[in-house]
Specification:
This protein is an alpha/beta fold. The chain is built from five helices and six strands. Helix 4 runs parallel beside helix 5 (about 135-145).
């Protein structure tokens, strides 16, 4: 199921939450949700940037990195949905998302079937503001993959976006 709520995705984060966001393949987290996660969750940035150093950027595109936040029941799912950074042209790669989303859903469905239910929390317009993607395209992708799955995707629209 795909839902859009008006709230802060970082506030009152329930246990068994997956915080999903788009990242670049360069190991840079200097803006947007990636920077917010870097500031809030110690250790995430180091794990993400170390993961990026192990692969060529083109090899990361369409994959994802999961970081278990120490001491709390939250995972951060960083989807490599863009190779570079910058606003001069669209960075979000829809094909990367078409590769990553089915695998993410499959992993969550497997957990769900075993009674381990996780909710995906993501920013409203993921991949669209800084990444330059089209929300209608991104929303359609999530609705397609969530449409046949028990996995819940909740998109958080900040009050300034309401």
């Amino acid at each position: 199921m795909v839902r859009i709520v008006k709230d802060d995705m970082f506030e009152n984060t329930a246990p068994h939450s997956v915080l999903m966001h788009q990242v670049n393949c360069l190991g840079v987290a200097g803006a947007g949700i990636a920077q917010e996660i870097k500031n809030r969750y110690s250790g995430w940035f180091e794990a993400y940037s170390e993961h990026c150093k192990q692969y060529a950027p083109s090899a990361l595109l369409g994959s994802f990195h999961v970081y278990d936040v120490p001491g709390i029941d939250i995972k951060i799912c960083s989807v490599f949905g863009q190779i570079e950074i910058g606003k001069e042209h669209q960075q979000t790669d829809y094909n990367a998302w078409k590769t990553a989303l089915p695998e993410i859903v499959l992993q969550l469905e497997t957990r769900h079937a075993a009674g381990d239910v996780w909710t995906v929390r993501a920013p409203y317009r993921i991949g669209c503001d800084i990444g330059g993607g089209d929300w209608n395209v991104m929303k359609d992708l999530f609705e397609y993959y969530a449409g046949y799955s028990p996995v819940d995707f909740v998109f958080y629209q900040q009050c300034g976006e309401c």
